[in-house]
Amino acid sequence: MGIEGGHAIENSLPALREFYRLGVRYMTLTWNNTNDWADARGDKKHNGLTDFGKEVVREMNRLGMLVDVSHVSDKTMSDALDVSKAPLIASHSSARALSKVPRNIPDDLLKRIAKNGGGVMINFYSFFIDQQTVGPQSAERDRRIKAEQDAINEKYKNDPERRAEESDKLEAAHPLPPLPIAKLIDHFDHVVKVAGIDHVGIGADFDGAVDMPEGAGDVSMLPNITYELLKRGYSERDIRKILGGNFLRAFAQAERVAGRTSRSISGDGSTKRINK
Fold it and tell me: The CATH number of 2-130+179-273 is which of 3.30.450.20, 3.20.20.140, 3.10.450.750, 3.90.180.10?
């Protein structure tokens, strides 16, 4: 299990430990909004992580909980990389070099995540894949559905969760023209080029976004990712890394840093017993 948004611990390390006890094994330090100890994307309230935020990262290392840097600002990500002794992940982010949105990761931080031993899980959301194409299309849709969106905002002004759900339904009823799946695979290629084959994975965000590339709209279509990677010349071993092996390896390393694992997981997902 995971938590998206460090707000959930309410500035309490004991609460973080309790979440771990209950089975939480990764936490995104922020969501889109900054909390009391970490800046979200594009925000500079704290200039990254506060001293307490750095303690959160150290405690997550101690517990064996993966630090997730999707949604955070570049400075927060840099600070987390400075502090963390274990691999961290970006659970659902793409490459900023190909789509210039703050939620994507720039090349300098891709390289640092690779050096850290972590991984970047590619987000399938079309806006993150090709902002230049999707941005104008999305703006035009917003104009067309403005009256309906305003009505939702007013009806659920005191219920942000329901407001978000209804907004997603409205957008789903007015889908954008899908991008070709090749544009999605370009992001895998880019992260491999910059960070290496051992530091990329899948973070589709099917439950958090609406518009996806053609042939990549839900979990039933994931075999298309395998097919497209094979077409581009990736070996079966490397594809297994992308499909989950890299994440399992980073997770196992985080557990080893905490001294809580009794097995080793390789990049292709295979396991073997090790002596503590």
Answer: 3.20.20.140
